[in-house]
Amino acid sequence: METYTGIPEELKFAVLERIQPTEPEREKLFAIQEELASQVKIAAEKLGIPGVLVKMVGSAARGTWLSGTHDIDVFISFPEETSRKDLETLGMAIAREVARYAEHAEDRHAEHPYLNITYKGFDVDLVPCFRVASASQIKSAVDRTPFHNDFVKPRIKGHEDEVLLLKQFMRGGGVYGSELKTQGFSGYLTELLVIRYGSFKNTIYAACSWKPGEKIDIMQHGEIEHEEPLVVIDPTDPRRNVAAALSLDKFCTFIDHCREFLKNPELSFFFPAPILPLEDSEILEKLESRKSTQLAVVFKTPDVVEDVLFPQLYKMEQAVAALLKEYDFTVIKTGVWSGNTETAVMMELISGTLPNVKKHIGPPVWVKVHAEKFKEKYQAADGVFGGYIENGKYIFEILRKYPTARGLLEDRLMSCSLGKQVHQSVNEGFEIIENAGICRLKEYDFRIYLRKWI
Amino acid sequence: METYTGIPEELKFAVLERIQPTEPEREKLFAIQEELASQVKIAAEKLGIPGVLVKMVGSAARGTWLSGTHDIDVFISFPEETSRKDLETLGMAIAREVARYAEHAEDRHAEHPYLNITYKGFDVDLVPCFRVASASQIKSAVDRTPFHNDFVKPRIKGHEDEVLLLKQFMRGGGVYGSELKTQGFSGYLTELLVIRYGSFKNTIYAACSWKPGEKIDIMQHGEIEHEEPLVVIDPTDPRRNVAAALSLDKFCTFIDHCREFLKNPELSFFFPAPILPLEDSEILEKLESRKSTQLAVVFKTPDVVEDVLFPQLYKMEQAVAALLKEYDFTVIKTGVWSGNTETAVMMELISGTLPNVKKHIGPPVWVKVHAEKFKEKYQAADGVFGGYIENGKYIFEILRKYPTARGLLEDRLMSCSLGKQVHQSVNEGFEIIENAGICRLKEYDFRIYLRKWI
Fold first, then answer.
1. Nearest-5° angle of CA A314, CA A315, CA A319?
2. Nearest to A252 among B252, B330, B392 (CB)
3. Could you tell me whether strands B384-390 and B342-349 are parallel, antiparallel, or unpaired per DSSP bridges?
4. Which helix (H) or strand (E) holds B372?
5. Where on this chain does CTP bind (chains A, B)?
6. Which residue among A255, A293, A332 places its CB closest to the CB of B359?
């Protein structure tokens, strides 16, 4: 077992100095929250909509936001008996009324529509919700949020800095954010970890020994089994795993980040040095030293939000890897990158070419009907090099249909099961670039991605 | 299910015409057997060795030899109570006395020494054995043979032609011969099949539906379980499987040969067209069309009999394939060929080269002690391209030690577990030839082997 050196207080101060909201920042945020709350009330009155309450939720409301983030979540709460239709139309009417004073407004859609506005420089979500009796009786996913707020706020009081440290530490490790692109830790999850373990430090120490199946149930009320690597039962809903979005690899990356940090507690675990984009010459050097085959399937970035796009890209990544494996190519790794205009599914292969001859293994000779059918089929087929018996099975050496990965993808990519928007975009056209060809992709962010890739 | 067309009588006649010993051939063989028998008796008397009997065994004694084969087995039978030492010295003394009239004599050794002589153009084995009460009480493996003779001779009478047909059919299919090179059917096994099934035709029909584990127990006295694909309990020894030497692939090759024959009963199944040696130009053509990598490990043929050599070659074939797989090369197939001067272990690979980068998969991150050790080791190692977490496991991209199969074999072949004589020979020197390099091997028999190989 490692013996860890502990976390110096000076380090924590140095981090907090950079992430704690300043007093003027706090005052401004609170003032804006007040303003928005009264705007909602005024709008409801003006539109003659009764029973509306305003709830400030999220990290802004709980004092756990990182300095520099300007997100405010305003929940417009309707009586439980309101119909879905009324919730949507009346809720959005109020939101739009508030938006009259905003610099910018945009309709968004989760389970229900909501309005995202820019208000005095803040990024504000105006979200209609039902006011239900408990989080286990919610009518819409967003109804849960006010309960989270009620649970966390009193318990986190005095520990806000610990949450800030943990959030920034997770950012530094690339595991902060529960959106479907990142599949990491949500803000609420971070708060629950601090409530459970008492501090940033204790969370880090505990995580070093986490295993998949790790379970945290603060209220001791979990009702069902969960399959995810980390199970944190929602204190406001015994059936929900707050860490359901956390992938196994992000779970492990966090464990690794904690262990490395405790071995050598440094500022860089919170604020890693920026990654420099890879130059053409570096790409060529790396290709030459690895001598593997790099392949990228490049297509126009579909015009959808990341939470829709990335699950489709991850699905495509799996499908492409499966296709390559099915046709005998050995995949070293796969990845996805998506920029403003172009998106790439990346693959590294042992080799992009295979021999023309393919060993096709048939059924055992003694499984008579199958074996005879198999033999008849291949004996008479075109391009058969030869046949023999090995380990009791018929083997035919047949002509490989796709001796190059490029040819395979060009011909069969569209037969992969792809998500709707990705399918559309790929169907409009895609390009397969290989090895030095990837120098064609110049986007700064792609070149940063490449430095991690090769 | 196939419906077979039956076996035309004319076909059988046509085959028998070529393999049935002619009357003069039979007379001559019988005369020579008589001569040898009396030679043995005279020798025993002359040397003053009492209790010696002569037993003519083998196909010559049972009338089931193929025309043109001139093998005679003369067993010199001693009383059971004879010591091993006496059996060997007295038995060989008698044999040597007989050998005085031979054109050529050569000491050979199975479990005991015996003498192989050429006598009036016949290939004769003079084999000392114990005269035991039953085959289950044998003192030496050869003691069993006279019992085989006693069992087969009366039962095969009148069916000798059926045995001849089956033997020749197996020859045509490359499955006749129980020596360790061939791992096929022995003559005795062929006779037992005809006794069991009644005829050549019935044997062929039955074999079409054989499965591994097929059991034939004519005397219904089998005592132990056998693992081999075909189990034919020795009628003279309930513990012995007569088909123990038959490999799974030869078992299957025979099944296949039977099925194909019944689909299209032709003379070529008994007398296949000779295989022509592959010319250099054909080798190059085939390499170009297959585009795989051919490798041959070539060394001086060890000076031992095939029954010693081939098990060692098969073992080497396995060991080399395992070595290549261990280092990530994909083996399509392996084979061995052995000529008078040179021997080659053949391998066909997807590719003889691999990238420099090798994906090294470590333990899951949560298996703390192992995972941390693994990470520490590779993080600090030379030639590491990078590391990441995938499916919960640490992955390091390390520098591949052997990016070519040739380099691997040159460096590590001697670390393979090799048989004694093969080890000696390989240790004295070996050559690795690749692709067009195999044109260097000119032996006629190798070029015939090559035509089957590629």
1. 120
2. B392
3. unpaired
4. helix B368-379
5. 59, 62, 148, 167, 176
6. A332
Domain contains B6: no
- Do A251 and A317 lie in one domain? The reply is no
The tally of domains found in chain B comes to: 4
Please tell me the distance from the alpha carbon of residue A132 to that of residue A140, in angstroms, as a whole number: 10
pLDDT tens, B92-125?
999 999 999 999 999 988 788 999 999 999 999 9
The whole-number average pLDDT for the span B147-157 is 95
Residue B164 lies in a domain: yes
- C-alpha distance from B373 to closest chain A C-alpha (Å): 10
Q: Is the pLDDT of residue B10 over 60?
A: yes
Q: Where are the alpha helices (DSSP H) in A118-199?
A: 144-156, 160-172, 187-197
Q: Tell whether A178 is in a known binding site.
A: no
Place of tokens 């089931």: B64
Domain-embedded: residue B150:
no
* Range of the structural domain that residue B77 is part of: 21-142
* Residues B228/B234/B240/B242 CA torsion (nearest 10 deg): -40
Residue in the block written with tokens 């890897």? A321
Contact A351 B356 (CB under 8 A): no
Pairing assessment for the beta strands A214-216 and A230-234 based on DSSP bridges = parallel
Q: Are residues B341 and B301 in the same domain?
A: yes
Tell me the average pLDDT of chain B: 95
Question: Do A300 and A394 fall within a single domain?
Answer: no
What per-residue confidence (pLDDT) applies to A427? 97
Query: Which of A248, A385, A392 minimises the CB distance to B249?
Result: A392
Q: Is A38 annotated as a binding-site member?
A: no
For residues B332 and B264, membership in a common domain is answered with no
From the list A82, A95, A24, A10, the residue with the least C-alpha distance to A54 is: A95
Measured in angstroms, the CA of A423 and the nearest CA of chain B are apart by 26
Classify the complex by whether its ipTM is higher than 0.85, answering yes or no: yes
| Closest alpha carbon to A345 in A422, A420, A277 | A422
Q: Which residues of B touch A452 (CB under 8 A)?
A: 386
Mark whether B248 and B375 lie in a shared domain: no
3-class DSSP assignment, residue A383: coil
Q: Which stretches of A190-341 are assigned E, i.e. beta strand?
A: 214-216, 230-234, 237-241, 293-300, 331-338
CATH of the domain at B177: 1.10.1410.30
A448 and A331 in a single domain? The answer is: yes
Q: Could you say which of B355, B391, B395 has the minimum Cβ distance to residue A292?
A: B355
Same domain, A130 and A225: no
Interface test with A, best of B350, B353, B399, B435 (most A CBs within 10 A): B350
Would you say B176 is a known binding-site residue? yes
Give per-residue pLDDT as tens, B67-99.
988 899 999 999 999 999 999 999 999 999 999
Q: Is A85 annotated as a binding residue?
A: no
CATH of the domain at A72: 3.30.460.10
Both A132 and A92 in a single domain? yes
Do the Cβ atoms of B211 and A366 come within 8 Å?
yes
Task: Specify whether the CB–CB gap between B403 and B383 falls below 8 A.
Answer: no
Percent helix, strand, coil in chain A, to 5, is 45, 25, 30
pLDDT number for residue A136? 84
